[in-house]
Automatic annotation (TrEMBL):
PTM entry text: Acetylated. Deacetylation by the SIR2-homolog deacetylase activates the enzyme.
The Acetyl-coenzyme A synthetase N-terminal domain, residue ranges: 24-80
EC number per UniProt: 6.2.1.1
UniProt xrefs under SUPFAM superfamilies: Acetyl-CoA synthetase-like
Keywords: Acetylation, ATP-binding, Ligase, Magnesium, Metal-binding, Nucleotide-binding
Catalytic activity entry: acetate + ATP + CoA = acetyl-CoA + AMP + diphosphate
Entry annotated with the keyword Nuclease: no
Cofactor needs: Mg(2+)
Encoding gene, per UniProt annotation: acsA
One Pfam entry name: AMP-binding
Binding of CoA, residues: R190, G191, G192, R193, T307, S519, R580
UniProt name for this protein: Acetyl-coenzyme A synthetase
Domain AMP-binding enzyme C-terminal stretches: 527-605
């Protein structure tokens, strides 16, 4: 990267911010040198405990043992609701903005508390007990937050499945976590279209005999099938008592499972804790977004992803903040929708993904000009690297050079933000997530695991634990260990590459494994390949990512058909439909190339490196192909490549 641009922290921003440069340095140093004391203070500051912990931390990356605040007792819903009632009972907790721009509603902390208590009693009535897993398959409506908090209130473990996943993907996740209860809506709304959520649940449950009850939120009022397992959310809620004392949970009791994709096998159920997770989500929310009482905060992420967990629901509510939930998409009914919502609700802090910024940037500035975004104070970015062009547009055009951008790097497994600017402390460089948050010690290593110093590029690892770190993979601690702690012993392997510049700033360069990041959504190439080979006509498939202007990465599938079958447009459509059925629309391949064979080593391993280069049109620079069993294959694949330019 040549000629980096640097944006200084404006004086007026630094003056009002919670964390200044001097304070960042002082707190960061303390967080490392006097870690137990530092984290004790933060845990006390951000969370109310029923009983203090015995030990601040007990972590060993050698065995993947991660424990924080053991012996401490707390309840997440108490922290997000009850403790705010005295002073903020009538303050809005959730602003909901519908897919339809004419629909919105608000819930105060008191109203949200009452609904959560009632719904927690509904769950109990149906037999949900502490540590039972509850699957939530809901669109972006307040009931999603109610369901999460109600589970937390009684100690049940929620497993949210993004409402864009298919019935088959839902089934796999219900089975893996052995969920006995499902909470869904009749339908979701997205961009003026409905999503058949209850129908998907019905399909999924054909293979889930253990599910006892399906609680259905009436959202669109569309026609759905009904059976003996189904009950209506609103009917149950009306009958339930609003009195439900919060369960006293151990800090290390699990709070939720969230499935995420890795380079191999099926998605993993990443398991997060109660105490450490909440401390970390609440603390990062406060410091990173510099939240001030009374402000309106909007994170556009769906609750089906980790960003929605930590920064739409738990982080904001634990701090008594007003959080906006948006059901729709950035371009419906028109590409000014985000800015209209900002104007309508006077949003102060806005947190979204680069893919949305790029998509809106491509629509031109006219869509900005008719809206008033003067309420905005802080802008955020998450989910994938933000290219400097998109950063500049966000900064100059959306924020009119008044709002610092926090480019926050983190992962499902990290629970909260690990690398980020702090608005009063950090000079910004477009495209860099900048510096580590308190307590975070990154190390960039080479392929042999040697730690690189100074200005360098390699694989990003983290050398010591932080409270928000995932505790395990549901059902397989061994898989947790192998995935994250075996590649570089003693370090947490992030799966990302990174460069560190001479100022100590981190630049995330993207995944180093076979995980794609498509529109900010994480996807395993192996999952898409498994879907493709289910088709009778497919002998073999290899999926790679390629650069895509809007999505960041597009999905490129090389498909080899069984002998005697000819490629056709019809077959291509069948394969696309198959992937949508197995995983969901987000995994739809952008390009399919028919490949008579795939390039393999003599031992039969597909050489993805070459396929990635061909997909990216980097055909002049294929590197060493001498280890291929049949180097001639490459020329043929190049001739037939799908995105010629
Ligand atoms: C990528 C989302 C660059 C990264 C919170 C990571 C980013 C993966 C950034 C995790 C960022 C996330 N800059 N890359 N600011 N934020 N990523 O689990 O590759 O859905 O490993 O968590 O997204 O995706 P996940």
């Amino acid at each position: 990267m040549s000629l980096e641009k640097v944006y200084d922290v404006p004086l007026e921003v630094a003056a009002g911010a919670h964390i200044t440069e001097a304070l960042y340095r002082e707190m960061y140093e303390r967080s490392i040198k006097d870690s137990d004391k530092f984290w004790s203070e933060q845990a006390e500051r951000f969370v109310d405990w029923f009983k203090p912990w015995d030990k601040v931390q007990d972590c060993d990356f050698g065995t993947a043992r991660i424990r924080w605040f053991e012996g401490g007792k707390l309840n997440v819903s108490y922290n997000c609701l009850d403790r705010h009632l005295a002073e903020k009972g009538d303050q809005v907790a959730i602003i909901w903005e519908g897919d339809d721009p004419d629909l919105d509603r608000t819930l105060t902390f008191r109203e949200l508390h009452e609904q959560v208590c009632r719904f927690a009693n509904v769950l109990k009535k149906h037999g949900v007990e502490k540590s039972d897993r509850v699957c939530i398959y809901l669109p972006m409506i307040p009931e999603a937050a109610v369901a999460m908090l109600a589970c937390a209130r009684i100690g049940a473990v929620h497993s949210i499945v993004f409402a864009g996943f298919s019935a088959d993907a839902l089934r796999d996740r219900i089975l893996d976590a052995d969920c006995r209860y499902v909470i869904c809506a009749d339908e979701g709304n997205r961009g003026g279209r409905t999503v058949p959520l209850k129908t998907n649940v019905d399909t999924a449950l054909q293979s889930c005999p253990n599910v006892k009850t399906v609680i259905v939120v009436r959202n669109t009022g569309g026609t759905i099938d009904w059976d003996a397992r189904s009950v209506w959310y609103h009917e149950e809620l009306a009958e339930a008592s609003p009195d439900c004392p919060p369960e006293s949970m151990d800090a290390e009791d699990p709070l939720f499972i969230l499935y995420t994709s890795g380079s191999t096998g099926k998605p993993k159920g990443v398991l997060h804790s109660t105490g450490g997770y909440l401390v970390y989500a609440a603390m990062t929310f406060q410091y990173v977004f510099d939240y001030r009482p009374g402000e309106i905060y909007w994170c556009t992420a769906d609750v089906g992803w980790i960003t929605g967990h930590s920064y739409t629901v738990y982080g904001p509510l634990c701090n008594g903040a007003t959080t906006l939930m948006f059901e729709g998409i950035p371009t419906y009914p028109a590409p000014d929708r985000f800015w209209r919502v900002v104007e309508k609700h006077r949003v102060n802090i806005f947190y979204t993904a680069p893919t949305a910024i790029r998509a809106l940037m491509a629509q031109g500035d006219n869509w900005l000009e008719t809206t008033d975004r003067g309420s905005l104070r802080v802008l955020g970015s998450v989910g994938e690297p933000i290219n400097p062009e998109a950063w500049e547009w966000y900064y100059h055009h959306v924020g009119r050079e008044r709002c610092p951008i926090v480019d926050t790097w983190w992962q499902t497994e990290t629970g909260g933000i690990l690398i980020t600017p702090l608005i009063g402390a950090t000079r910004l460089k477009p495209g860099s997530a900048t510096r580590p948050f308190f307590g975070i010690v990154p190390a960039i290593v080479d392929s042999q695991g040697n730690v690189l110093e100074g200005d360098c590029e390699g694989v990003l690892t983290i050398t010591r634990s932080w409270p928000g770190q995932a505790r395990s993979v549901f059902g397989s601690h061994q898989r947790f260990f192998e995935t994250y702690f075996s590649a570089y012993p003693g370090k947490y392997f992030t799966g990302d590459g990174a460069r560190r510049d001479a100022d100590g700033y981190y630049w995330i360069t993207g995944r180093v494994d076979d995980v794609l990041n498509v529109s900010g959504h994480r996807m395993g190439t192996a999952e898409i390949e498994s879907a493709l080979v289910l088709h009778d006509s497919v002998a073999e498939a290899a999926v790679v990512g390629y650069p895509h202007n809007i999505k960041g990465q597009g999905i490129y599938a090389y498909v080899t058909l069984v002998a005697g079958i000819s490629p056709s447009a019809e077959l291509e459509q069948e394969l696309i439909q198959l992937v949508r059925k197995e995983i969901g629309p987000i995994a739809t391949p952008d390009l399919i190339q028919w490949a008579p064979t795939l390039p393999k080593t003599r031992s039969g391993k597909i050489m993805r490196r070459i396929l990635r280069k061909i997909a990216a049109n980097e055909i002049r620079d294929l590197g060493d192909i001498s280890t291929l069993a049949d180097p001639g294959v490459v020329e043929e694949i190049i001739q037939n490549r799908a995105n010629r330019s």
